[in-house]
Design a protein that fits this description.
alpha/beta; 6-stranded mixed beta sheet; globular; Nucleotidyltransferase, domain 5; 12% strand; 3-stranded antiparallel beta sheet
Length: 447
Amino acid sequence: MAKKLFPTRWKNDKPPSIEKFVETFRDDYACAEYLSKKRWPDGFVCPHCGSRKAWRLEARPWLFECAGKGENPGCRKQTSVIVGTVMQGTHLPLRKWFLAAYLMATHSNSISALQLQPKLGVTYKTAWLVLHKLRRAMVNPDRTQLSGAVDVDESAVPYKRKEDTLKKRGGSSVAHQLWIAAAVETHGKHGVGRIRIARIADRSAASIVPFVVANTVPGTRLRTDALASYSKVPDRPLKMVNIKKTGLPAHIVFKWIHTVFSNLKRWALGTFHGFREKHLDSYLNEFVFRWNRRRNFQGTMDTMLGIGRRIGRVTYRDIVGDTTQWKKEHIEEILDMCHPNKQKIVSDLADLYRVHRLEVLENIVWWVKRLREEHPDLLYGFEWDFNGVRELEEPRYYGRRTKASRPVLVPRRPGEERRTSRRYTNPAALLPRILPRPVQAPALAAE
């Protein structure tokens, strides 16, 4: 049958097999050589003195030491091939970064940190950090806006919180939703182009209009539903479709926009088992990146590694954000997970010393000791459970081995002494006597 009946997503840029990829990038030297060719196609050039001669360090193959030239023969400054990429400042081997980018580029449904952890042989936190750094490189700040005919719509995405697991165990669950908006380029009746997805506060014009303006060029022909917020978008011809009057389902009228939403939600539940509120934007950017480059492997991998772009160093703090500010904004949710006695202590100390509750929560032991030293008369005025306060003040040592309450192994039975042979055989005295012993046949008389 004709090949056109079986289209492939890798029609123009097919990725290599795992065997060929491992053979190509067999060690850090091969990865560093690939990066150096991408960084300096015409040969090494020192960014400090312009020299074209350098030595590669033996211990760290991605570092080059300049040999100097002309008036500055003693330059001797080191230049790295990973500067400006997501690998800048990493402690992982380059080969693991390349393998992570290859797995992420070839997996149609992405890969979670729990799946990547055993494949790279790293901890879960390291795998999680590698994936989020690769997601940071997926967003191009200089990307062009959508144009032509664009469908725009909004939808609600469910997300999970840590405390939801505890509430669900108690017999009740709470559903949380976030609003997102999407824009899809359409070509003719069945064609589809690039997409854009972003989080919005609500369905009001104050949230939807900035999204449309930021992701479409003036003069774009918009097609939306009958929501009144879209009528306030400036400089863009608008066609509003009342779905109820058409008598057709929404996924038929707006085919591609609903395909994007359904694929996004299915992808979230299947790969990540639901989104988290804090890192929702990173996952939305990854989905957009995968959709727009679903038939381009080499460009996808180079973009994720940050080759050819000045991304700069990305640290763990940059990804998780200002944790102090985030905790202050979610202090109510954090305190809901604490013991009621601890909530009472934090609130009383924060009111007494006029500080934020988060500051008391992070070092509650020090604040209780301060209250005991400065205001011993006020200590007994609070309705606290002093047993709980004493437990907070006592130092806790984690990781100390304690004696088990019961033996790990069952005591050996009589006759089950340790055997020196490799194969263990049950003692003859403990074998079940179910079958009668075989009776020896009488010897036949000689003829």
